[in-house]
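lol ok so funny story. i was supposed to be doing the assay writeup but got distracted and ended up predicting the structure for this chain instead. priorities right. anyway since i did it might as well share w the group, maybe its usefull for someone
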Amino acid sequence: MSKESRISVVMASYNYERYIEESVKSVWDQSYPNLELVIVDDASTDATLAILKELEKRSPIGMTIYCNKENQGPNRTQNRAVGLARGDLIAFLASDDKYAPDRFKSQVDLFKRDLHLMVVYGNGWSFRGRDLTARLHSDDVKGLLSQDADRVLRYLYTHSSPFYLQTALVRKEFLLECGGNDEQVLADDWVLNIRFFQSLVKAGHFAYIDEDLAYYRLHDDNLHKNFARQIALKKEVIEKYTPKSLKREALANIYRKQAGIALVHGDLLNGMSFLFLSKVNALLSKRSFKDAS
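and the output, tada:
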């Protein structure tokens, strides 16, 4: 990889007029010399697009703005942004999140040393207002990323993805070979990570660096309190991607996780209901395993 390999930061924006300028400026502030920003707005109904057009006029880096004529959803919108990108490497940024300064150096250094390296994950923080709340990738997640691709893929078949794509840097060619975002399902990051590791078990390497590269903003719009919708999204992924022998285990895990979220929010009824469904699916998973053996 040449020293001048271009990085394309791709962003799908929608109705985040409050945060979009801070997100864009976190890309401008990067020290990497060959950088572009590609933003596809998904027919925002607030001032997001107007803000972006003003930012484009004074951008210190190459900046491409495209607006969908009608709302297409995050997966199709992100795929369009990737299609417009001219870089060899792709980085992702949500329009309400931001990057840490100098986030690319260590990742690019790894790509230079290994032509078979396809994706490098990093770490970061969630934050609310001015307060950092938690590391994005816990010790358990870092342990998972130290495993081989087969073990990571099995985990992704049975658990929602714990990997934050805001921290990832990916070869564009690899991303396209994986098929990009699945436009037929609503879940985005989980499926894209599954697709990465479905390819990585066949060829290529992945890596993790324990550096803070991105910040994930917590606010009321991205706290997933619509439990019925969240369960439906996750079941859709399990139905399409999880092997039949692992489906019950996957359902048990997602119900258990949603139970924890519901209980934290004081929703005792949903919390206990999800715990019951988790136990039922766990028992059925064990029975299926015994029958198979």
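Residues 268-292 form the longest helix (25 residues). DSSP finds eleven helices and nine strands in the chain.
back to the writeup now i swear
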